[in-house]
Amino acid sequence: MLRADSCYNGSVIPRTIEELQEIARTVRKNAIEAIYRAGSGHPGSSLSCADILTALYFGGVLNYDHRDPKWERRDRFILSNGHATPAWYAVLAEAGFFDVRELFTLRDLGSELQGHPDKAMADFVETTTGSLGQGLSVGVGMALGLRQKGLATKIKTVVLSSDGEQNEGSHWEAVMLAGQEKLANLSLIIDLNGMQIGGNTEEILQLSPLEDKYKAFNWEVFSADGHDFSSLLSNFSRFVEGKKPKVVLCKTIRGKGVSFMENSKEYHAKTLTETEYQKAMEELTG
Amino acid sequence: MSESKSMREAFGEAMIELAEKNPAVLVLTADLAESIRLNKFKERFPGRFFNVGVAEADLVGVSAGLASEGFIPFACSFAVFVPGRCYDHIRLSVSRNQANVKLVGSHAGLSNPGDGASAQSFDDIALARVLPGMTVIVPSDAVQVKQAVMAIAEMVGPVYLRLNREEVLVLPRKPFEIGKGQLLREGKKVTIVACGAMVSVALQAAEEVDGEVINMHTIKPIDEEIILESVKKTGKAITIEEHSVIGGLGSAVSEVLSEKLPVPMKIIGIEDRFGQSARSYEELLVEYGLTKEHVVSSCRELFK
């Protein structure tokens, strides 16, 4: 199986595109199952960022040691849109941070796998998220700290965010400071599935032109197809270049991989019925 | 008469002294370096000073990130902004994370007279106190500010440190320990618990009413023992703080007494009002009843 031993000398061995697609399918399946068993969760976002997360952890992008989540040479990763965590937990399980069966303790009392990533409950969480607009600030602090320690060229700080999170003013405080400080060791990925709780992002608080916004704050901007591994990997390879913080705008589909969830308003936060669960599993089982 | 010195001056000096000893210490501010007397620190340690701009949420998050990387960040702003303005960021990125961030709220209470209500904080102790795992310290004078700064750098975990802006009477130096109230004056008729600039007001009042004065610089975790020991003797308690009567020192003391030793008690502070402009700090203290006379008359009410 494509699990455990994903890291070698602390450096992750990149998988082929076919292997990545296979891992992502498993991630989607496990995330949906975890949400179903938990009785609540966020399927739409979990499905839209599954490929991004798979690319990060299995495409040779992030350095980590699944046996030691606090390994000091690890790349720092923050899931700022914390509600997408079922997918992140599913990727961590595939990477060997914990047994895949633990995945189904999502949201259980006392579980490491809290409904949103919680540093107090799990040692693989860099910072507690679930309240939008905080993750990038913490990422800026980590990137600054690593630079202070002379590790800016050796350790990456990567933050995953969502389009809904762009609504939060505090996120933009961090964007401004990162640009000001020329934090080249900080990278941001945005899952642009075009939707938020109330509907389409462009109808609620228009983000476009988003690329122009980040450029105006002195970031380098890239665009990727959030469901195409070649596109994701070639863009993520830019993380180690340049003199500015980088953002990769990833066009995705909310609910991607489960036909009745794709672009549906209903599946942001949902308790899945047995029927929905069975149908989703049919589609996600290869 | 003893000297007066401003807490913010003392803070600026203390940070330099601390940073000289401890290389992990950093200072961050949301563009209030001059007001909080941090410019000398910036000159002395330019690589360890960060102005994040007028962005208090970012101030807190960035500090949390730095703490995660092993630094000891002091995140400095006015008490009206930190904790109030960026509260959710403190709740999660600092308190839930148990990040080793030292939040500093200066110009607390009425000590920013001219600027008016938007600059006068009466809720910061209440807000900080209710966060799990947050240590809350309100030094009484310039000497205690320095002691507090050194002590909070030694301990691991989030801290809220409250500073006054004006010059405040310097009290005789005593050993400082986080979580241990200081018995400053023995007395028989009433226990007066005070914090910050109100400690010297309490001492003045105590002379007239045979009061026992406790400097409760650490509001959380509060020193229950010293309160109970004193109140067992006196049978009456008064608190005074430059803060709302809701949720601050008075509430913390009454939480202890109501459960363990209920006695007649009076909480003196800002009576659920906002601040306002004035030409002087002293005028405001009178307007808002934070005076020796008010403490004395309140004690006499309790004696009836």
Describe the protein in words.
- The complex is a heterodimer of chains A (286) and B (304).
- Helices cover 36% and strands 13% of the residues of chain A.
- Chain A has 286 residues and is an alpha/beta fold.
- In chain A, helix 5 (135-148) packs parallel to helix 6 (169-180).
- The two termini of chain A are 15 Å apart.
- Residues 1-6 of chain A have low confidence and may be disordered.
- Helix content of chain B is 38%, strand content 21%.
- Chain B has helices spanning 7-21, 39-44, 56-68, 87-96, 124-129, 142-154, 198-209, 224-234, 249-260, 281-287, 292-303, and strands at residues 4-6, 25-29, 49-51, 72-78, 102-106, 135-137, 159-162, 167-169, 182-185, 190-194, 211-215, 218-220, 237-244, 265-270.
- The chains are: A alpha/beta (286), B alpha/beta (304).
- The interface between A and B is medium-sized, with 31 and 30 residues.
Radius of gyration of chain B over all CA atoms, rounded: 18 Å
Strand content of chain B: 15-25%
- Unreliable segments of 5+ consecutive residues of chain A: 1-6
Class by SSE composition of chain A = alpha/beta
- Characterize the main sheet of chain B: 7 strands, mixed
Tell me how many strands of chain A there are: 9
Q: Could you list the spans of chain B in which at least 5 consecutive residues all have pLDDT below 50?
A: none
Tally of individual helices of chain B: 11
Average pLDDT taken over every residue of chain B: 97
Q: How many H/I helical runs of chain A?
A: 10
